[in-house]
Design goal:
Elements: H1 2-32, H2 48-67, H3 89-103, H4 105-108, E1 129-136, H5 141-152, E2 157-163, E3 168-173, H6 180-188, E4 193-195
Helix pairs in contact: 1-2, 1-3, 1-5, 2-3
């Protein structure tokens, strides 16, 4: 029975990680300098609701088993059986908090992105152009933040508004400092693709 609890907790943790992997990967790719790998786990996105459901069910069942009243076995032993840490409520609490943090990652992940250097460039507002790029592969706010960060790193970008829901990026830029090709390349380097 105790090994079943370990297996259930393992399934719960793996489900939580799997549900968040497509959202965590862009940040990890940015930190590691391999931003092209950002979209590597996009195939998990359609399964996210099922993985979240599995996590909630497994952890709910683990808590139910941990908190339900134990049947008295009629033992005359004075010694209390010490539970191992991995079978304790404290460990289950840690696993539960970890799972919640993983499942909620898309809602707070922007705090982990490095701030884009503040560009004090002189840009001529009269020369500014605005383009809208259709982008394939974005599935959540993490994807948005990854593309926005890449665009804001370019010289000559005044403003970049990225939407995964609309699958696009609206970019205001100074054509004397950057080109549409450079902007498209910055997006493509993130692992998402500009659709022509």
């Amino acid at each position: 029975m105790k090994s079943n609890n370990k297996e259930l907790l393992g399934i719960g943790v793996l489900s939580a990680i799997g549900a968040s992997l497509c959202c965590i990967t862009p940040l990890l790719a940015l930190i590691s300098g391999t931003s092209g790998l950002a979209s590597a786990f996009l195939w998990l996105e359609p399964f996210r609701p099922y993985l979240i459901g599995t996590t909630v069910l497994v952890l709910g069942f683990a808590w139910y088993q941990k908190l339900r009243p134990k049947k008295e076995m009629g033992c005359n032993c004075d010694e209390e059986e010490k539970t191992k840490f991995i079978q304790s409520k404290a460990f289950l609490s840690i696993v539960t908090v970890f799972a919640i943090l993983m499942l909620c990652f898309p809602y707070y992940e922007e705090v982990f992105y490095p701030t884009t250097k503040n560009k004090k460039e002189m840009m001529n507002k009269e020369n500014m152009k605005t383009i809208t790029l259709e982008i394939e592969g974005m599935t959540c706010a993490s994807c948005e933040n990854h593309v926005t960060h890449a665009l804001n790193e370019l010289e000559g970008i005044s403003k970049a508004t990225v939407s995964y829901e609309q699958a696009n990026a609206v970019v205001e830029f100074d054509p004397s400092k950057t080109t549409i090709k450079k902007i498209e390349k910055a997006v493509n380097n993130t692992g998402y693709k500009v659709h022509h």
